[in-house]
Design the sequence.
């Protein structure tokens, strides 16, 4: 018993063990949060939600960001992509007459991590 | 009578067993060290490339070397690198003396100073390339903010600085290793000697010169050999930091061998250089051993 | 005898330690700094810390696979070193015909630049049918001269009487090594483990030539991916450095006490 | 007893660990493809290889990728071992060495048999792969040097457009140089700096290729001008010492007026230089329209077990479809005329500046230089360049440097002859 404790309670077991636990925990988290959901809101200069704006998802592709897909915002200005494949993306929105937002770069901690963009995309300049 | 026989038989059996114990290591060195060297030796007297069958070349390749400026440059640089090993050793000796004093947390110091040795050389090279970077390297930044210089120095791109920079990086990596070896030497010097000398009224400096240094020779020899080999064969370091440039400023024999062989498909010339290089190393080591008074050699071959 | 002031020593050592550690910090800082790492003046403390370079690294190469290869290869090399070097070291503690030659051979073997041996080494490995395999990757590293002498030294330290006693008890040489010698040379073992691990872990050129299929590559080869020509991957490169160095450092820091002792005891006779 | 078990264990272990090596090999219809540091294209290749396998049932494809400087080491070791990859992607002039030593399959007969394959490509780029009248490679992706201009610095110095002559080039550089700022940079690996010599009528070798021809009064004066302008800061020192990161990084930092580099630089520079956009960065031809290509091409190894299949493969990889797919994912020209046209058109919409840069790569392709097919190119480079460096960095008198370079080059030529 004592020997067993001595074997287990030395740093050559504890440190790797600890690491293993951390890794497992992290993977558990990843597997429950990689549906590729990117959600957010689009507002105009005054901060009012903009419905019917078209939002583009740009996926990083070696040298350039490439337009992956489009969605349109609901009346409350929210949008939602459901299959973002990448960990390095940009989102931009535009609506004729209201204007266009700049491309907002988004970095994710792992591929197709689910994320809810806190800052809304702000349309500016009459596009 | 019979007893004698038995003893002798046991002896031979033991010897046989010992050779068996040596066998695996010997086999590995044979495969990956000895045979390749022989291969190089043979190749250096032939015309050969991966795409052409071999034909005898006599001494042509060695003759070519005589007229090959690059070879001489590389040889010269290699010698400089070898000559730089003592700098590191002196530094390490000072450190060893310091961490040998009875002070708190000396184990911590030892560990920290040694930490750079386990690093992967490629990574070390990348790290130092970044340190020496002309625009955002730490060294330039420090020098400029201290107003030592007003325009940044392109360390790795300047003919004067490149080689010293590589050497610095190399010493940085090897320092801890030297230190540990020398520390050992120090710890194996019996205290009584010092105390006796102190009683005889010998000054600290005198004690160091008369007792410490002489007894440290084998360790210094070992540090030198290992360090020297490590730095002249540190292909990765040069290859990643400067690629031998600018011009030929940091071309050393190892990188030249690699370039001759694989970039210019002149494996035969490369083999000739290899042979010269090998001879150079053996000679240097032998010289160092003589300098160390042969103790190190004796320790091996007693 | 030791009545000298301590603070100058501490001062000097602190400075040196600083010099030794700064490069680590600088690369670490670069690998996590959110702002443009080419901005001048460089910030000493990164303003916005983010781990995204590490994320890039993870997805830029099959990191897990490479990691596994590196680990397996290093493990083989470590095992080989401990066993073979112990045997060789033990043999060298005895006197026997041809010993001088063997030692000389070992010493000369230290002086062969590996870059010059690539092609024959490759052909030999091919003959052995070990190309593109873990064992083939590890084999050249499976016994190292310095480590042999480390073992020899620590075995020499074992009192002969003990060995003779063991002999009289009728233990075979093999048993003597494993049951008498090894338990007494823990630090030598630690040294072997660490050095062998480091050397095979850091090996770059051999895996480069040896491996053919993508999923036999080891971590150091992954570095190549970050010297890609078109985009600037500097940040990721330094992140990768940290990720490659971490395991070796971890192992070293865990075992450093035994390691230091082993190296110091071993280096004596070298 | 104990010993035996140990030995057994060891043997078992060996067998298991060696397994991968045995599992590989066999299978007659296997193509191995060695590419040059484009592991980033894994996704695309997976798709394309899939298509190829579908079209040729029973074919396996082994894909190998090595970094530029490491590829020759790997490839040559494979040749020695008798297992060269069937198809190899080679950059620069390395191929001539292999071709001259009979290591590559001559593609001319194939091209004659299927004339419309050659028609795909820009003839000037295709002709870059000809040695002694035989074609050895098909273009995979191509680039050549151009002149990037930092328009902001041009404005500050009161300069209108890109330089129209060598004198203007030097003049502009000196004008823009002050303090941190320098006027001109060039990449110098391979022969990328050669257009600067060519535009001044310097020839490297005599027409018969037997002697060095560059040691002239004109060249000496040219080097003197470079040295002078370098010393005064008009030309940035890095132009002669830097490799890839340093010069591009320097230009990206916005303190250099002009950068003479190939299109690949654009993406690197853009990644580092936040200042870069269509109003601040200009892409122009060097005065005299000379440029040095750095092309990638597919070759077939002589050692290949089934060269015809390999030919099918490189035909497939350079087809309009594959080429435009490659253009799309990597934004680089492929020398496949149709693919480049289409790609540029779409890039025009998403990233006009990149399109403008790439556009320069298909203009004036008749004025390529520094890509002479010499089997000892690498040696030539090593004999020539270091001396030039000495001269322009003011470490040697131009005349002396040229004399030394000439001696080295001629000795090389003599030994090769």
Sequence:
């Amino acid at each position: 018993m004592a020997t067993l404790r001595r074997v287990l309670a030395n740093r050559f077991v504890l440190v790797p063990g600890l690491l293993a636990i951390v890794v497992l925990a992290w993977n558990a988290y990843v597997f429950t949060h990689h549906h590729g959901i990117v959600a957010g809101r689009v507002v105009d200069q005054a901060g009012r939600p903009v419905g019917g704006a078209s939002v583009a998802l740009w996926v990083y592709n070696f040298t350039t960001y490439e337009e992956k897909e489009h969605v349109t915002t609901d009346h409350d200005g929210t949008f939602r992509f459901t299959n973002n494949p990448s960990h390095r993306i940009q989102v931009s929105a535009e609506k004729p007459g209201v204007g266009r937002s700049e491309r907002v770069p988004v970095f994710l901690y792992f591929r197709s991590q689910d994320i809810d963009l806190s800052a809304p995309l702000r349309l500016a300049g009459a596009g | 009578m019979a007893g004698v026989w038995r003893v002798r038989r046991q002896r031979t059996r033991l010897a046989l067993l010992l050779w068996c114990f040596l066998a695996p290591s010997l086999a590995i060195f044979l495969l990956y060290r000895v045979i390749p060297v022989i291969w190089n030796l043979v190749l250096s007297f032939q015309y050969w490339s991966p795409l052409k069958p071999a034909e005898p070349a006599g001494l042509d390749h060695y003759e070519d070397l005589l007229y090959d400026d690059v070879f001489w440059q590389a040889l010269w640089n290699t010698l400089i690198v070898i000559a730089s090993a003592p700098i590191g050793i002196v530094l390490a000796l000072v450190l060893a003396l310091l961490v040998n004093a009875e002070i708190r947390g000396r184990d911590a110091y030892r560990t920290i100073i040694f930490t750079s040795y386990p690093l992967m050389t490629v990574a070390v090279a990348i790290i130092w390339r970044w340190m020496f970077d002309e625009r955002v390297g730490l060294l330039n930044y420090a020098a400029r903010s201290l107003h030592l210089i007003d325009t940044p120095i392109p360390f790795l791109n300047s003919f004067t600085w490149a080689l010293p920079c590589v050497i610095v990086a190399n010493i940085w990596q090897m320092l801890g290793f030297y230190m540990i070896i020398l520390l050992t030497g120090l710890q194996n010097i019996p205290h009584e000697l010092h105390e006796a000398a102190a009683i005889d009224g010998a000054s600290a400096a005198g004690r160091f010169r008369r007792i410490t240094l002489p007894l440290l020779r084998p360790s210094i020899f070992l540090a030198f050999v290992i360090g020297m080999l490590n730095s002249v064969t540190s292909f990765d370091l040069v290859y990643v930091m400067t690629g031998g440039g600018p011009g030929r400023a940091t071309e050393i024999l190892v990188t030249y061998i690699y370039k001759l062989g694989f970039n210019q498909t002149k494996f035969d010339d490369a083999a000739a250089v290899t042979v010269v290089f090998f001879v150079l190393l053996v000679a240097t080591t032998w010289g160092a051993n003589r300098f160390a008074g042969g103790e190190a050699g004796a320790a091996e071959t007693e | 005898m030791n009545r000298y002031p301590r603070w100058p020593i501490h001062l000097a050592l602190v400075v040196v330690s600083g010099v030794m550690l700064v490069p680590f910090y600088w690369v670490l800082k670069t690998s996590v700094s959110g702002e443009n790492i080419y901005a001048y003046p460089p910030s000493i403390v990164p303003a916005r810390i983010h781990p995204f370079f590490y994320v890039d690294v993870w997805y830029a190469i099959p990191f897990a696979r490479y990691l596994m290869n590196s680990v397996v290869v290093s493990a083989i090399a470590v095992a080989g070193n401990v066993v073979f070097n112990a045997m060789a070291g033990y043999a060298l503690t005895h006197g026997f015909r041809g010993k001088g030659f063997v030692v000389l051979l070992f010493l000369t073997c230290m002086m062969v630049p590996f870059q010059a041996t690539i092609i024959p080494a490759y052909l030999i490995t091919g003959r052995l049918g070990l190309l593109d395999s873990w064992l083939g990757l590890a084999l050249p590293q499976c016994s190292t001269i310095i480590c042999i002498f480390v073992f020899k030294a620590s075995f020499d330290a074992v009192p002969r009487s003990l060995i003779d006693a063991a002999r009289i008890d009728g233990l075979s040489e093999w048993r003597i090594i494993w049951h008498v010698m090894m338990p007494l040379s823990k630090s030598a073992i630690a040294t072997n483990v660490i050095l062998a691990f480091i050397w095979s872990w850091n090996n770059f050129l051999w895996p480069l030539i040896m491996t053919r299929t993508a999923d036999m590559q080891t971590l150091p080869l992954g570095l190549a991916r970050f010297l890609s020509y078109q985009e600037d991957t500097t940040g990721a490169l330094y992140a990768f450095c940290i990720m490659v160095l971490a395991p070796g450092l971890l192992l070293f820091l865990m075992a450093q006490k035994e390691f230091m002792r082993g190296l110091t005891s071993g280096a004596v006779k070298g | 007893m104990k010993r035996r078990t140990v030995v057994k264990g060891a043997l078992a272990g060996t067998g298991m660990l060696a397994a991968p090596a045995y599992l590989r090999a066999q299978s007659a219809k296997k193509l191995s493809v060695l590419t040059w540091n484009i592991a980033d294209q894994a996704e695309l290749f997976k798709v394309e290889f899939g298509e190829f396998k579908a079209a040729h049932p029973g074919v396996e494809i082994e894909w190998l990728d090595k970094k530029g400087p490491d590829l020759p080491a790997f490839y040559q070791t494979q040749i020695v071992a008798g297992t060269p990859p069937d198809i190899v992607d080679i950059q620069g002039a390395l191929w001539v060495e292999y071709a001259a030593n009979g290591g590559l399959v001559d593609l001319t007969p194939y091209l004659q048999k299927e004339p419309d394959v050659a028609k795909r490509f820009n003839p000037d780029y295709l002709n870059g792969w000809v040695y002694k009248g035989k074609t050895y490679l098909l273009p995979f992706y191509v680039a050549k040097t151009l002149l990037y201009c930092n328009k902001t610095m041009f404005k500050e110095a009161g300069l209108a457009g890109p330089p129209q002559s060598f004198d203007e080039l030097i003049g502009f550089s000196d004008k823009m140089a002050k303090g941190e700022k320098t006027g001109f940079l060039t990449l110098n690996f391979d022969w990328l700096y050669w257009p600067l010599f060519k535009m001044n009528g310097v020839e490297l070798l005599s027409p018969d290729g037997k002697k060095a021809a560059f040691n002239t009064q004109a060249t000496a004066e040219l080097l003197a001008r470079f040295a002078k302008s370098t010393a005064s800061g008009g030309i940035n020192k890095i132009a002669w010492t830097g490799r890839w990161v340093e010069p591009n990084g320097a230009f990206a930092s916005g303190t250099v007026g002009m950068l003479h580099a190939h299109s690949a630089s654009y993406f690197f520079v853009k990644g580092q230089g936040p200042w870069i956009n269509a109003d601040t960065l200009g892409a122009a031809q060097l005065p005299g329209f000379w440029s040095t290509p750095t092309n990638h091409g597919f070759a077939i190894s002589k050692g290949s077990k089934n060269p015809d299949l390999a030919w099918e493969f490189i035909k497939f990889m350079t087809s309009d479809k594959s080429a435009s797919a490659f253009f799309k994912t990597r934004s680089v020209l492929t020398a496949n005329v149709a693919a480049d046209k289409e790609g540029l058109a779409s890039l025009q919409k998403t990233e006009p500046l990149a399109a403008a840069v790439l556009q320069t790569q298909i203009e004036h392709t008749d004025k390529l230089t520094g890509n002479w097919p010499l089997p000892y190119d690498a040696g030539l480079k090593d004999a020539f360049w270091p001396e030039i460096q000495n001269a322009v960095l003011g470490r040697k008198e131009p005349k002396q440097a040229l004399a030394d370079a000439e001696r080295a080059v001629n000795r090389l030529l003599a030994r090769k002859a």
